[in-house]
């Protein structure tokens, strides 16, 4: 299966997104551009490559991969590619700032991101999207949009919009639990939830659904774990910077206690000379 579906609306959308990005940031540098263009390229491949054909007609597991990329991989790349100055300027628009305040912070952002992923895997909704081109397009757009909203408090360009470390860990861990429960249900649940998929390439419907569940379960948790590690590393880096500036933060006190013995040993050696 090597059929590429060069849907004009998808190609045009990705081209417009890329050109708009270049137009906005070209005078201020392209430091974050690799993230953004990687996200756009992955979006294009996700929607025009053979993954899309397999997902639409043959394999449930391919559809899980498509949804996984739309909700959990592409949005973080796009957000990491947005410059801080651009985001700050955009939020000076009253209507946009109001929208961000309404949907950009928990619990709303969490409910939109996780809830959309769970809702679209309800068999009735999932099968209806496969049967309707319009609803299928809306499904993809909603996963991409709510995925971006979900990751905004974690990876958005503005530091003051980020969740505190403990809040970020709880936010991502709880999302991981929900993703794992959905994956476990798909892996061990009844076969035939999505009758469009009759198997392909040596995979029967049962194996296909189990593979889809495992893809939802394991790689999804690794993405959330990466977000947790990123949040903790950002906190530790900020604490170390504050420590270097003379602030007495918890991490600074820990760092001082850890390094105190080596400092004392160095002083003893110097005095003995």
Average pLDDT across residues?
89
Name the quaternary structure: single chain
The largest sheet, given as strand count, sense and whether it forms a barrel, is:
none
CA distance, first residue to last residue: 75 Å
Helix share, percent: over 70%
- Beta-strand percentage range: under 5%
Estimated radius of gyration = 23 Å
In the predicted model, the low-confidence regions spanning at least 5 consecutive residues are 262-267
Q: Quick one: how many beta strands?
A: 0
Number of helices: 12
Give the overall silhouette. globular
Structural class: mainly alpha
Number of discrete domains = 1
Could you state the order of secondary-structure elements as H and E?
HHHHHHHHHHHH
List keywords for this structure.
273 residues, mainly alpha, 12 helices
Describe what this molecule looks like in 3D:
Helices cover 77% and strands 0% of the residues. The protein is an all-alpha fold and 273 residues long. The protein has 12 helices and no strands. The chain has helices at residues 8-25, 33-48, 50-57, 60-80, 84-90, 94-103, 108-119, 123-131, 133-155, 165-188, 205-244, 250-272. Helix 7 (108-119) runs parallel beside helix 10. The chain has one domain (8-272).
How do you describe this structure in short?
This protein has helices at residues 8-25, 33-48, 50-57, 60-80, 84-90, 94-103, 108-119, 123-131, 133-155, 165-188, 205-244, 250-272. The protein is mainly alpha-helical and 273 residues long.
């Amino acid at each position: 299966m090597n059929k590429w579906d060069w849907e004009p609306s998808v190609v045009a959308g990705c081209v417009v997104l890329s050109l708009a990005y270049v137009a906005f940031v070209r005078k201020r540098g392209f430091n974050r551009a690799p993230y953004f263009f990687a996200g756009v390229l992955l979006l294009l491949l996700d929607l025009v490559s053979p993954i899309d054909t397999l997902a639409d007609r043959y394999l449930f597991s391919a559809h899980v991969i498509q949804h996984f990329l739309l909700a959990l991989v592409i949005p973080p790349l796009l957000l990491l590619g947005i410059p801080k100055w651009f985001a700050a300027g955009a939020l000076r628009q009253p209507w946009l700032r109001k929208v961000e305040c309404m949907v950009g912070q928990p619990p709303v952002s969490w409910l939109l991101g996780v809830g959309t992923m769970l809702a679209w895997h309800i068999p009735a909704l999932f099968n209806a999207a496969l049967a309707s081109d319009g609803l299928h397009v809306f499904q993809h757009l909603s996963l991409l949009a709510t995925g971006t909203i979900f990751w905004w408090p974690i990876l958005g360009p503005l530091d003051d919009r980020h969740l505190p470390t403990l809040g970020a860990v709880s936010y991502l861990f709880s999302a991981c639990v929900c993703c794992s429960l959905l994956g476990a249900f798909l892996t061990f649940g009844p076969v035939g939830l999505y009758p469009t998929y009759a198997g392909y390439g040596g995979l029967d419907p049962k194996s296909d659904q189990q593979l889809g569940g495992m893809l939802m379960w394991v790689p999804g948790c690794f993405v959330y774990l990466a977000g947790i590690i990123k949040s903790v590393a950002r906190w530790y880096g900020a604490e170390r910077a504050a420590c270097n500036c003379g602030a007495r933060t918890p991490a600074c006190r820990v760092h001082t206690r850890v390094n105190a013995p080596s400092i004392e040993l160095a002083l003893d050696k110097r005095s003995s000379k």
